């Protein structure tokens, strides 16, 4: 019983009803330093998202908002571990899209990588175009920092779309698309009211997808993936997940699962 108590407290907190987010650090009432604007048209100082991040001082202790104007940003974006308290916010009806094509490795391929704690991201699209045929890892986003939130964001790829590597993360009203292990890692995360889109059918009838590959490696580890009030749709067939490590833990709670899910559930 002692082994599961920590997780019970986590799970009950995550699925508790009400409009308040499950983590006390998820809110927007912060005092911001002067904002930074990114616009490819040249009307602002920064034309790339990475140059705006690079301009923030290391070991910054105040929230800084980077407003990103609409457009397709073809760049790799990395938030280093010494640049906390960054709030990336997309502006406009057409959400800004960050695209990169790379499938070299899990570490080298991500379009977006965040190593820092205390990061907030809103209304951005992250796309990895490096998957394709034959299927191979191509990560749209890799998150290793603690206390990171995504609101109304989308992550598009094929294999290994979202590397939810470690730390406490909260996703709300997000869209995550892929075919094979496209939400994976050892994060302690909740996905609330998100749309999970399987595209395994695009690779033929013989391709069966896997939504998650959770990587909890020890009996006392607190990490898990919890999907609360989510909607699972798409084409082709897919399992809800498979274990990436020996103690993998994934929960779909009060979520809608379409008929694309293999009746067995998990592999």
UniProtKB/TrEMBL annotation:
Pathway: Glycan metabolism; pectin degradation; 2-dehydro-3-deoxy-D-gluconate from pectin: step 1/5. It is an enzyme of class 3 (hydrolase). Its main location: secreted. Pfam families: Pectinesterase. Residues 1-17 form the signal peptide. Keywords: Aspartyl esterase, Hydrolase, Secreted, Signal. It is found in: Secreted. It catalyses: [(1->4)-alpha-D-galacturonosyl methyl ester](n) + n H2O = [(1->4)-alpha-D-galacturonosyl](n) + n methanol + n H(+). The active site is at 181. GO terms for cellular component: extracellular region. InterPro entries: Pectin_lyas_fold, Pectin_lyase_fold/virulence, Pectinesterase_Asp_AS, Pectinesterase_cat. It comes from the Eukaryota. The keyword Hydrolase applies. Residues 36-265 form the Pectinesterase catalytic domain. GO terms for biological process: cell wall modification; pectin catabolic process. GO terms for molecular function: pectinesterase activity. Its EC number is 3.1.1.11. Belongs to the pectinesterase family. This is Pectinesterase. It comes from Cuscuta epithymum.
């Amino acid at each position: 019983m002692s082994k599961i108590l920590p997780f019970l407290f986590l799970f009950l907190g995550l699925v508790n009803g009400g409009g308040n987010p499950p983590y006390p650090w998820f809110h927007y009432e912060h005092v911001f330093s002067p904002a930074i604007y990114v616009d490819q048209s040249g009307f602002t100082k920064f034309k790339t998202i990475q140059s705006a991040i690079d301009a923030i001082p290391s070991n910054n202790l105040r929230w800084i908002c980077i407003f990103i104007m609409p457009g397709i940003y073809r760049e790799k974006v990395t938030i280093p571990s010494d640049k906390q308290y960054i709030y990336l916010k997309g502006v406009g009806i057409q959400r800004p899209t960050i695209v990169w094509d790379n499938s070299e490795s899990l570490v080298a391929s991500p379009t977006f990588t965040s190593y820092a704690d205390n990061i907030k991201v809103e209304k951005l699209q992250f796309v990895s175009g490096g998957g394709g045929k034959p299927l191979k890892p191509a990560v749209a986003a890799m998150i290793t920092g603690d206390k990171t939130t995504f609101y109304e964001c989308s992550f598009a790829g094929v294999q290994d779309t979202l590397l939810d590597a470690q730390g406490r993360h909260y996703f709300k009203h997000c869209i995550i698309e892929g075919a094979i292990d496209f939400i994976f890692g050892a994060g302690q995360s909740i996905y609330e009211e998100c749309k999970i889109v399987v595209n395994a059918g695009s690779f033929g009838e013989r391709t069966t997808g896997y939504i998650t590959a959770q990587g909890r490696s020890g009996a006392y580890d607190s990490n898990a993936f919890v999907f609360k009030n989510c909607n699972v749709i798409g084409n082709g067939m897919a399992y809800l997940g498979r274990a990436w490590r020996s103690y993998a833990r994934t929960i779909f709670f009060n979520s809608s699962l379409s008929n694309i899910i293999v009746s067995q559930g998990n592999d």
